[in-house]
Q: What sequence folds into this?
């Protein structure tokens, strides 16, 4: 670091660990001669009560749980999450270990979870107490206490190793601590049980490899596996199995393998006064926290680009900190395109920024078909480049999270570590005489960005943010309760669950069970998601500060339709074409009709976007000759692909529209199967889109599902 001065000393109620002390004694005693780190954390965490924490910390706990439940619903509702459910079962299955395993994958899969200093805590610190709450009969206060104990234990150990090769989601060891502390505090276990369970778990920490993490579904295991190790260690410790209590600080222990600069002080500093729980930053869209501010800027610019064809965008420049620039550099080592994994898409700054620019949002549906097949997104993504701005790096490194607090704890040792990673970033380091924070009530996470869009006509549009929407922002704060509520409801959550969680500390065990069941039931049912004009969606839209037409419900409808069509086709495998399923011909007719209809709707959408007089006549999509010509010339797979392509084009056009364009009158003429006129008159464009999303496409989807379930004729 620049500057000079002596490094600070970490202190807590149990004594002092000299700054920079690397190891501990082999007998389990800490470097200061007192008990080991694990023993001290176990002693404190096993006795922790909710009343020990200030009200503002308890408020964060509620927001954290609700936001994590929103991430779970979004995860299970995505095609990847549905595969998780098929492979590992429901989060409400009877065996809590299996339930947590499944849930931890679902909450990781879209990178929609929240972050704290230090770590992505909630995959273990919320998931484990939440799932065990029913089997253990926890009341609301006990559940909150368990999450608090898990947060504080996991965050502290993670912070002690954060100046090393693993941070964020790659730090799977976070969940060794979160699983142990979350379960054992829920079980009211003794400090001895805690110490041995943590000692066992941290003797076998996971080591994630970037080859699988950044580009494949292997990322799903990053939390689920250490959670299982932690739960297994709890089982053993409860029946007398032992682990080394000094495994964290021992010269042959965890910190010396997982930290370049071990910070044992971070694990113990300010126990009972320095609350890591209130360092949470909350995500309002899926994706890495290193890309969030850039996405927010792109959402802001979407409105300024209204009416601009995406081909007129010459270049998009994203300027950000070493975190943003570094992630982009890593992600570009992998080939990313429409067929990429969700993990690869999550880490792709170009795809996420392009999506936000074109649609005015970034939603879970943008991480699957038909969204990922839209050529315009990839065309714009190809024009996105990233630059490192030292000013953003300085803001980021001065903030509490993700590294500022650890760098201050490391003092003069930090400069060499940062310089080895990125010499440019070392110039942005704050002076080493800045001491670590002793109160996190105004914690910050300033991962800012500046996005500049250059058009071919010479114009430039620019937006800048010091931090992402929902990020910890110091005294200004963030309305995390409103963000969490809006996120949960927008992901299809039950409003009653929101009410129950708002008074969680007063709930009886049976009410906690109802909360868990309400919050996690029906996570794979897209029909439970709210309509586009609900208050929940409106709140999310307000937080994004965008005024684009909402396309989430429309996209969700098409995702369901394509899934149903694919299922109907899969049901045909192994059967002769001469043995048709009742309704197969109707299925082909339906797909052809939808494909033709979406082409007509896209044409009308262009008229609305261009400000021309708009009209819609569905006659060509009902023409028996046109449909027969289409169905007889291609097979089912081609029809499905045509539906997917045309739907992508239509939804992409809708996503470019302003809210006020919903009121545009469209001259509509509708005809029936026999060509008879059913309706003629003016209809607002927004109503046409709403009916498509809520009535027409779901109706066709239900018809296709009935066909796929129908018995085959003999």
A:
């Amino acid at each position: 670091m620049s500057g000079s001065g002596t490094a600070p000393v970490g202190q807590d109620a149990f004594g002092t660990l000299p700054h920079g002390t690397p190891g501990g004694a082999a007998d389990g005693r800490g470097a200061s001669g007192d008990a080991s780190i694990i023993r001290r954390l176990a002693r404190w965490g096993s006795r922790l009560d909710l009343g020990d924490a200030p009200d503002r910390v308890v408020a964060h706990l509620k927001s954290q749980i609700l936001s994590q439940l929103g991430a779970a619903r979004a995860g299970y509702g995505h095609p990847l999450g549905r595969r998780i459910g098929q492979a590992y079962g429901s989060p409400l299955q009877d065996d809590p270990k299996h339930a947590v395993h499944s849930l931890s994958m679902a909450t990781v899969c879209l990178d929609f979870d929240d972050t704290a200093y230090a770590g992505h805590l909630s995959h273990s610190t919320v998931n484990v107490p939440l799932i065990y709450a029913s089997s253990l009969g926890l009341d609301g206060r006990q559940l909150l206490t368990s999450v608090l104990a898990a947060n504080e234990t996991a965050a502290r150990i993670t912070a002690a190793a954060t100046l090393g090769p693993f941070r964020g989601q790659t730090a799977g060891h976070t969940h060794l601590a979160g699983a142990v502390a979350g379960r054992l505090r829920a079980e009211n276990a003794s400090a001895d049980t805690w110490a041995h369970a943590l000692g066992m778990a941290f003797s076998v920490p996971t080591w994630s490899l970037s080859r699988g993490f950044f580009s494949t579904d292997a990322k799903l295991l990053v939390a689920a596996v250490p959670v299982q190790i932690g739960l297994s260690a709890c089982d053993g410790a409860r029946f007398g199995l032992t682990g080394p209590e000094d495994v964290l600080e021992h010269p042959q222990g965890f910190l010396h393998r997982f930290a370049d600069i071990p910070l044992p002080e971070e694990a113990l500093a300010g126990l009972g006064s320095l609350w890591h729980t209130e360092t949470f930053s909350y995500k309002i869209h899926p994706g890495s926290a290193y890309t969030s501010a850039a996405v927010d800027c792109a959402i802001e610019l979407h409105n300024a680009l209204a009416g601009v064809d995406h081909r007129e965008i010459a270049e998009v420049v994203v300027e950000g900190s070493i975190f943003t620039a570094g992630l982009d550099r890593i992600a570009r080592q992998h080939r990313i395109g429409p067929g990429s994994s969700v993990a690869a898409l999550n880490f792709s700054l170009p795809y996420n920024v392009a999506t936000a620019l074109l649609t005015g949002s970034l939603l879970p549906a943008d991480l699957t078909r038909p969204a990922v097949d839209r050529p315009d997104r990839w065309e714009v993504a190809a024009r996105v480049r990233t630059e490192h701005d030292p000013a953003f790096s300085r803001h980021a490194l001065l903030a509490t999270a993700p590294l500022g607090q650890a760098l201050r704890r490391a003092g003069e040792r930090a400069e060499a570590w940062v310089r080895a990673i990125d010499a440019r970033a070392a110039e942005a380091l704050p002076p080493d005489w800045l001491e670590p924070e002793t109160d996190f009530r105004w914690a910050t996470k300033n991962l800012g960005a500046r996005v500049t869009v250059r058009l071919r006509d010479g114009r430039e549009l620019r937006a800048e943010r010091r931090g992402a929407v929902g990020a910890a922002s110091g005294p200004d704060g963030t309305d995390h309760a409103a963000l969490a509520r809006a996120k949960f409801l927008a992901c299809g959550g039950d409003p009653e669950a929101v009410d129950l969680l708002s008074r969680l500390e007063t709930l009886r065990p049976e009410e906690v069970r109802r909360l868990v069941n309400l919050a996690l039931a029906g996570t794979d049912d897209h029909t439970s998601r709210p309509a586009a004009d609900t208050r929940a969606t409106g709140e999310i839209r307000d937080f994004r500060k965008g005024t684009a037409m909402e396309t989430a419900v429309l996209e969700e409808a098409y995702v369901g339709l394509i899934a149903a069509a694919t299922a109907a086709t899969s049901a045909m495998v192994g059967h002769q074409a001469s043995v048709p399923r009742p309704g197969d011909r109707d299925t082909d007719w339906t797909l052809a009709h939808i494909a033709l209809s979406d082409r007509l709707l896209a044409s009308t959408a262009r008229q609305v976007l261009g400000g021309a007089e708009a009209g819609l006549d569905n006659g060509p999509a009902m023409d028996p000759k046109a449909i027969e010509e289409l169905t007889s010339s291609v097979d089912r797979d081609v029809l499905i692909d045509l539906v997917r392509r045309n739907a992508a084009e239509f939804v992409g056009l809708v996503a470019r529209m302003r809210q006020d364009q919903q009121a545009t009158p469209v001259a509509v003429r509708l005809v029936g199967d026999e060509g008879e006129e059913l309706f003629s008159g003016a209809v607002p464009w927004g109503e046409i889109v709403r009916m498509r999303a809520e009535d027409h496409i779901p109706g066709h989807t239900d018809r296709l599902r009935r066909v796929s379930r129908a018995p085959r004729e003999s």
Remarks:
- Residues 1-33, 525-548, 571-580 have pLDDT under 50 and may be disordered.
- The chain has three domains: 35-282+478-528, 283-477, 549-709.
